[in-house]
Amino acid sequence: MTIASHKLNTSNLGVNEEALLRCQTALELKDREDYQGAQEVMRPLWKHVGERPNTTGLYSSVVAELLLCVGVLTGWIGNKNEIDEAQEKAKNLITESIALYESLSDVNKVAAARAELAYCYLREGALEEARIMFNEALQKLTTRGNTRARALLRLAIVEWSAARYGEALRILEENSVLFKTITNHALRGTYHNQLALVIRNLATGENETEYFQRAIREYEEADEHFRIAHNIIFRAHVKNNLGFLLYKLSRFKPAHHWLDQARRLTLSVRDKVRTAQVDETRAQVLIAEKKFKEAESVARGAVAVLEKSGQQCLLTDALITHGIALARLHKTDHAQYTFQRAIEVAHQVGALNKAGLAALTLIEELDQLPPDLLYAAYDRASQWLAESQSQDLLLRLNEAARLVFLILRGELKGDDAEDIFIKPINLQEQILKFEGALIRQALAKADGSVTRAATLLSMSYQGLAYTIEARHKDLLKARSPIRRRARKISEEAR
Question: What is the pTM of this model?
């Protein structure tokens, strides 16, 4: 339900009291995912994302509260609407509020604001920075209430995102009493949803059925709290998670049923990012059903949306799924480029566990990688997944190690021990090899289009087509089919 600004009774309030009431109301609407209502309430003080709020005539403490509120709303609305640099703008506003709270010696508000700042970093996928900030904030947030509960939940999300599932479970279980006592149903629902996610990831072959049944119960509890809170997006999130869980149990038809429900809900509130998340889950189900063409199309659409969202961890997940679909369709070069891009995106924001997962999946899905790339992928994956607490991931990593060893051993010839000595270099041969690698990569980026690949390489279409035909015939299958134009027949020849 939307609460319009004109419905707020501010007639008997001064400017400072009115500003505080508007901030409080807007944040309550945020918890109910009422984007329009929150913006409308703040309209007299704040026009839209990207602008500073009007602080004229306000006390310093109220200015700090207003800056914090607008910073939180900027990060939240910017995330939903895929607004460029929204998280950076949100961080600037929240940082300014922290400076004001520090000047007022308000320790609790400094801690609360730092927790909100950490959440901006979490949205961007900067897990290490987010972890540090949440832990610093929690040292000061000693009062048992919604602010501490929210910070604990988000810290658990950081650990879950980093595949430190045991640590995430510890945080949630040690604070279970706090979440039972708070009255905010949106927070309680988020607690049960996150607990289900962690339990799901801790499932192994021995306890899988028991853990999955427990996860389903937690999802049901979460959905009930979100229903009471009238939170459509969070209900969609739960249904998406249920669909994923059923897919893991190979129950594909009910998985699609829950994903259909989740997608309808995200579309009803026009949340493109959440819709893309559902589509990424759908693509995984389709891959399991061996419907690779459909999976590739759905995953490609999710990637296109998430590229604009600034949520690099979600983008990495979608790129990995897209890469798997491409690999199963035997589009090897495009798949390799997609996996490598996933590694790069995750690495840029410090989400090393996701970069490791992308590298591991690259090894698993592509069986004709150059030996140096294969070794590098395993070397990075083993480093980045070293702290993972997922039994499934560690088993996959061990299997990848065996595969890499067998392939690399097969590459060794009788004279390969001599490779440690300096050998003559055939410059022309190395140049040709380098040229071929660049063209192959450009064709993968351009999905086989010689026209687009030529643009990437700063060449003409004719020049690139000739180079492939004359010097790199092995790349003919990587380019789009050649369309021969029909010859015009002159009048004299008719």
Answer: 0.69
Q: What is the dihedral of CA 381, 386, 389, 391, to 10 degrees?
A: 60
**Tell me, what amino acid is at 429?**
E
Rounded Cα gap, residues 395 and 298, in angstroms: 29
| Residue 91 neighbours by CB under 8 Å, 6+ apart | 71, 75, 117, 120, 121
Q: What is the distance between the alpha carbons of residues 475 and 64, in angstroms, rounded to a whole number?
A: 60
| Max CA separation in the chain (angstroms) | 95
| Distant-in-sequence, close-in-space partners of 291: CB < 8 Å, separation ≥ 6 | none
Mean per-residue pLDDT of the chain: 87
Cα–Cα distance measured from residue 462 to residue 471, given in angstroms and rounded to the nearest whole number: 14
pLDDT in tens, 452-469: 888 888 888 877 887 888
Query: Which tokens in the block code for residue 328?
Result: 């199963």
Short-list 117, 149, 152, 110, CA closest to 135: 152
Q: How far is 215 from 201, CA to CA, in rounded Å? A: 10
The two tokens of residue 336 are 């390799």
How far apart are the C-alpha atoms of 251 and 213, rounded to whole Å? 14
Q: Are 422 and 312 in contact (CB under 8 A)?
A: no
Cα 427 from Cα 184, distance rounded (Å): 69
